[in-house]
Write a structure and sequence with these properties.
single chain, alpha+beta, OB fold (Dihydrolipoamide Acetyltransferase, E2P), 2 domains, five-stranded mixed barrel, 5 strands, 35% strand, globular, RND transporter, signal, CusF_Ec, CusF_sf
């Protein structure tokens, strides 16, 4: 019986805190943030496409440091999150991209031509 009371009390406390946390999270959504686009852009790494393997859905990229993954500059093979990305580039293109570990595989999740 004590466990039920403790659990009920804990749930009541969490339930009371949830609206405040939700309101705080929503605050940024409603009002936006001038730094949000800058933060997203800062996460893009620069690189050059060295190889495209459409059958495997992979790109080989010579890239600068990948801050989001804590990796130094090097040449790496990445999966493309979307096969359409492989049609957007050709070997030798300078790109800006975001990479994440998706299911244990390094994956390009965003890709654009470098200015």
């Amino acid at each position: 019986m004590k466990k039920i009371i403790v659990t009920s009390t804990l749930l009541a406390m969490l339930g009371a805190a949830a609206p405040a946390a939700f309101a705080q999270a929503e605050h940024g959504v409603h009002h936006g943030s001038a730094s949000a686009p800058a933060e997203a852009e800062a996460k893009l790494a620069e690189g050059t496409v060295k190889k495209i393997d459409k059958s495997a859905g992979k790109l080989t990229i010579v890239h600068g440091p990948l801050e989001t993954l804590g990796m130094p500059a090097m040449t790496m093979v990445f999966r493309a999150a979307d096969a359409a990305m492989l049609d957007q580039v050709k070997v030798g293109d300078k790109i800006r991209f975001a990479a994440e570990s998706v299911g244990g595989a390094l994956t390009v999740t965003a890709l654009e031509a470098a200015p």
